[in-house]
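Internal tracking record. Fields below are filled automatically when a chain is submitted to the structure queue. Please do not edit lines marked as system-generated. If the sequence contains nonstandard residues, flag them in the REMARKS field before resubmitting.
Queue: standard
Priority: normal
Entity type: single polypeptide chain
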Amino acid sequence: VDAWKRHAGMQWEARRSRVRFGEGANQRTWDDQHVLFRNDTKAPLGIVSPSYKIVQPGEMFELFRDIVGVGGLQLSAAGTTFGGREFWATAKFCGGSVGSRTDMVQGFVLIHSTLDGSRATTVRRVLERAVCNNTIQMAFKENQKAGAVCKISHRSVFDPAAVKEYMGLNMDAWNNAKGAMLRLANVEVDRYAAENFVLRLLGADPGSTVQAECVKVEKTMVSAGYGKILSLFNGEGKGSTLDGVQGTAWGLLNAVTDYADHHVRATSGANRWASAQFGPGADLKAKALDLLTA
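SYSTEM-GENERATED OUTPUT FOLLOWS
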């Protein structure tokens, strides 16, 4: 764990100070707002309230110190984004094939927190497809009893016990998700069904045909990825021609995750990653999953 902290660049701690402003000798203090900053570089991280509970990057690893090795859990990756304002770590807990032995899917636990007041500390299970690194939150309908996300507000003290309780349901969540993935891999999808699905996904009238909607959704087709998602589904995406993927609902889901994770426009890789895990990209993937499993 200590080596992971060092190599992930997460040995520093966040400190807080009251916000000061003004010019020259006329400095004033704003007691209702604190600035969080790194103790190593003194770089600012965010403005928060005095009641904001800090989760230190090292606390995440101390949690892993307790749970790694239990039930096959193994640290996989960790790091910071946006100069340390957000930090995260993942651990593998299970894996297997879906439609064929070459289409491997891995289950991960993703722990993520912030130091700028933007998000609560979250623990979620995600699926990653090995051939292309596409990810989606493990939130299949049958999995709700296992809890899709464990959230801890920054108004509360970080509770490792709540996270450990969440971890205890990992295998139930994996088994339910794998069953749902296998069902999707056995549902054939033709060209017209795929086109109508993407139109529904991007907001067109679900009862309309592609031909009737072409003029209405021309902007959507160009700017929101209509053509790109279909290209990924029709063979451009990594692993899109594998058995159980090509021409199936599972392949259609992976076309959406491929688009959101790797192809959507973003100002930086960090912004694309944040969108794909917590923002509009994550919402798009969740909507695709809901439509396909309805």
